[in-house]
Specification:
Blueprint lengths: L1 H33 L2 H8 L3 H11 L7 H17 L3 H8 L2 H4 L2 H14 L2 H16 L2 H28 L31 H20 L4 H21 L8 H21 L5 H8 E5 L5 E5 L8
Antiparallel strand pairs: 1-2
Helix pairs in contact: 1-5, 1-10, 1-11, 1-12, 4-12, 7-11, 8-9, 9-10, 9-12, 10-11, 10-12
């Protein structure tokens, strides 16, 4: 059983990484090609009227395109495909052979921290280092990473609230229940999708995008490392018995989309902040219970 369980989990982690990294790498290389000196020189030499017209049309890239919809569809299919493994993997990881492995236990704690406050600390560290060292590119990278993680956190919070999925080990008559994650005492019912995994993949995709913009030659090293680490964070959450396997694919897709979207908007729009554009899409409305309803209206384009 240990061998079978190990093989299943290894395949799941590798599959999540393989789904996320190719799309992110392609988008990162696109950003890099758009930011090269040759591209900038070509753009500067264009006719001013044409440039102004193009700016009016393309200055704000769509947040969701056919490519993002395809990726989301694949992640949903992956969620359905791995759902039968939820209980077998959870049971396997709770066996003494796994839980008494001290190095693995310690590593899972470090990885869980890396997927929780870790992305925010990385962003803050980049911002501080950039300001102290007089490096705007570094501080900008920290800002963009933070923006990506915040966007992923907002989307996953909405998904958790709607799905209301029970965490492993929670006794309930319904595994999923509509909007149960929004209720008071919702702690045991916010399993789907995994917030740590989404944050980790948001940081990985944003970091890959920043590397493509400033040091394109390092993308081949930074990208695989960042996404492998994000996948390991997802595995750590399984090991800690706070998530199901099927909580991970959609979380990985959300995180990857968040990082790619922020990077696309930032590097195609100069120094304009993504948080400001996200705020422009936000809608706030008082609820009947005295709370506040939060919504997002994102522009959609059929462009590839």
């Amino acid at each position: 059983m240990k061998i079978a369980g190990s093989a299943v989990m290894a395949i799941a982690v590798i599959a999540i990484t393989m789904l996320a990294f190719p799309a992110a790498n392609a988008r990162a290389q696109s950003l890099a090609s758009d930011d090269t000196p040759a591209a900038n020189l070509l753009a500067a030499s264009s006719d001013s009227a044409t440039s102004a017209s193009r700016t009016n049309v393309d200055s704000t890239p769509p947040w969701i395109t056919k490519r993002e919809l395809l990726g989301g569809g694949i992640s949903v299919l992956a969620t359905i495909a791995v759902a039968p493994l939820d209980k077998p993997v959870a049971s396997e990881l709770q066996e003494a052979g796994w839980q008494k492995d001290e190095p693995l236990h310690s590593a899972s704690q470090v990885l869980a921290f890396a997927g929780g406050p870790g992305p925010f600390l990385v962003g803050a560290g980049f911002i501080a280092a950039g300001h102290l060292g007089g490096n705007p590119g570094l501080s900008g990278a920290g800002t963009h990473i933070t923006e990506a993680v915040l966007l992923a956190a907002g989307v996953t919070a909405l998904g958790k609230g709607i799905a209301g999925r029970a965490l492993p080990g929670v006794k309930t008559s319904e595994n999923f229940e509509w909007a149960r994650g929004f209720h008071r005492g919702n702690g045991p019912f916010v399993s789907f999708p995994s917030g740590h995994t989404a944050a980790a993949f948001a940081m990985a995709s944003a970091l890959t995008g920043e590397t493509a913009a400033w040091r394109p030659g390092l993308v081949r090293y930074v990208g695989p490392f960042a996404y492998a680490t994000a996948s390991a964070i997802g595995f750590a959450r399984l090991y800690q018995h706070v998530h199901w396997v099927s909580d991970l694919p959609l979380a990985a897709a959300i995180g990857t989309w968040s990082g790619l979207s922020v990077e696309s908007h930032v590097h195609r729009n100069g120094k304009r902040g993504a948080i400001g554009r996200i705020a422009q899409c936000a809608m706030l409305q008082p609820s009947a219970e005295g709370g506040m309803l939060v919504g997002l209206s994102l522009p959609f384009s059929a462009r590839k």
